[in-house]
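quick one before i forget lol
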Amino acid sequence: MSIAAFILVSVFLVCLMVAFIECGRRIRLRNTDANGSKGLGVIDGAVFGLMGLLLAFSFSGAESRFETRRQLIVQETNAIGTAWLRVDLLPEALQPQVRDDFRAYVDSRLTFYRELTDDRAHTIRNLARSNELQKRVWTDAVAAAKQTGSPAVVSLVVSSLNEMIDITTVRLVALLTHPPLLIYITLVVLALSSALIAGFGMGESSKRPLLHTLVYAFALTATIYTILDLEFPRIGFVRVDRYDQILIDQRNSMN
C-alpha cells in the first residue's frame, strides 16, 4: 500500500459521502408526510454519537500506537549503543570482528525499515538478513566474552545483547499491531449512515446546501484519513521514519 492508495480511498469516500447526503436529501423531499419524520432526533443523535465515540477511540488508539513506535526507535538505539560500548570489555584482538558484526547488523536494521514499503518478499528477505546478522553478533560477542574468563564481563555483554535482540521483537510486533479490519468497516458504515441522515435533515429545504455537504464530507474523511495515516506511519504524510535519524547517528558514531 502507498500514499497514492490512501489518497484514492479518501477521494472515493468523499464522493460516497456526498452521494449519500444527496440520497438522504432526495428521500426527504419525496416524503410528503411532514409529521413522519418527527421523533427521529433520538435515532439521529444515537448514530452521530456512536460515530463520534468510535472516531475518538480510533484516533486515540492510533496516536498511542504512533507514539509507542516512536519510543521503540529510541529504545532500540539506546540498546544498540549500550551493547556497542560494552564491546570494549572484550579482548582487544577479538573486538574488530565483533564491531564489524555490529556495523553490518545496524545497517541491516536501517535497510529493513527504510525499504519496508516495498514488496512483501523483499521485506521478508531483509528481515531474514537482519536476523542472521543478529545471531552472528550474539555468537561472536558471547564467544569473545567467555575468553575473558570474567563472569562479570559475560553477564554485562550478554545482558546488553539480550536487550538489543528483544527490542527487535517488540518493534516487529508494534509494526504489525493494528485494530481489526471490522473496526474500520464499522467506521465507514457509520460515516455513510450519518451522511444519509444528515442529507435527510437537509431535505427540509428544496435548495441544495452544497457548502455544508462538502464541509461535512471533507471533515469526516480527513479525520478517518488521519487515523489511517497514524496507523501506518511509514506510508502517508504523518511519518515516523524521520526518527530513524537517531539510529543513523548511532551508526555513524560506530565508524
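fyi The chain is about 80% helix and 0% strand.
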